[in-house]
Amino acid sequence: MAARIAGLSTEGDLQAAVSDYLNLVVIFRRELGRPGRLDSVVYKDTQIQLADLRALLALTDEEAAAGNANRILLRAATLHADVAMLVVPTLPGRVGCSARGTVLVKDGNSVGRGCVCFHWSIARTLLDSVRPQPGKDAGVRLWYQATITWQLSVGDFANADLHIPHAQFLLPDDAVIRYLHGRYHEAIASPIIQPAALDSGTDTRGARVHFEEAADHYRRALRENPRFVEARVHRGYVLLELSHEDEALSELRRAAAEAQGTQLRYYAELFLGRAEAATGNSAAARGHFERAAGLYPRAQSPRLALALLARDRAERDRARRAMQDVLSAPAADRDGSDPWWDYFAWQNRDEETLRAELYRLVAPEVSR
After folding, report:
1. Which of 7, 55, 168, 221 is close enough to 231 for a disulfide, judged by CB 3.0 to 4.6 Å?
2. How many helices (H) and strands (E) does the chain have?
3. Per-residue pLDDT tens over the stretch 224-239
């Protein structure tokens, strides 16, 4: 119900409410630390008793003693995130959307106008007031990881374009945020997004610039956490797109050796096969493509890769058999059984898992 009410509120009303709350928190903190403080304060021509102000701010005894509203700020930011994710998409017209224009994309084509949701900026404003520093707060860190993961999983790049740099500013050394920043640039460079971005003029930098940005963010993520295998797999793919085959080969060999989980191992083997083929090691490439095919026997990509590898080696019979395997697969197999189709949206820690972890933190009494 609270999310629905917030979803129907105007941006101006919500900004005013947030401003009042944050101002009252500052006043409450100031009065707590003042020797011989008064029993009441005046705010906007209204006299408020300190005891009433504490209740108005919804602070516990411990929070009131410390002048700490972090719990409420995180809960409020989570409410606005829920509004942006779950409520605004169901509302009519452009309720909840700012005036900023965006492009709605499907399969690389512009198909309409999207929504830059102002609830995200309101949530960021709330978290910027977390004390002593928002970037040192575990709840803020989890909130940004969960919300960015959701934005990327549903392809909400217009909001991620504003959201991720703010998270990066607050959390410059967080490997997950670095990784997600790389995922954003990798997705923008993909054939799913890039043609529409160029045609519409919303982003004219080109795929290579985004791949280079992605590679740098993945490198930084791995510097913070060398065992971040998922970042290593993605960096390997991006390096292949940038024609840095030797560097990609090094990354992907380590990734394939360390990858856990069927889908991540599939990507590592598939990309490593491509890297081995690019450096002329056809036998090794075939082995990796076959391992990828073994992980997902109905997937097209490794079988097509095997066919192309055989064709390049003038092994016509083998190439023909591999292509027949691809073309003879049932339509249902061709549409949904290859993880490659999910590559730009899939993540090991999915958004539902992260959001559940966030809810347990901000509302343990509800999450039990």
Report:
1. 221
2. 20, 4
3. 999 999 999 999 999 9
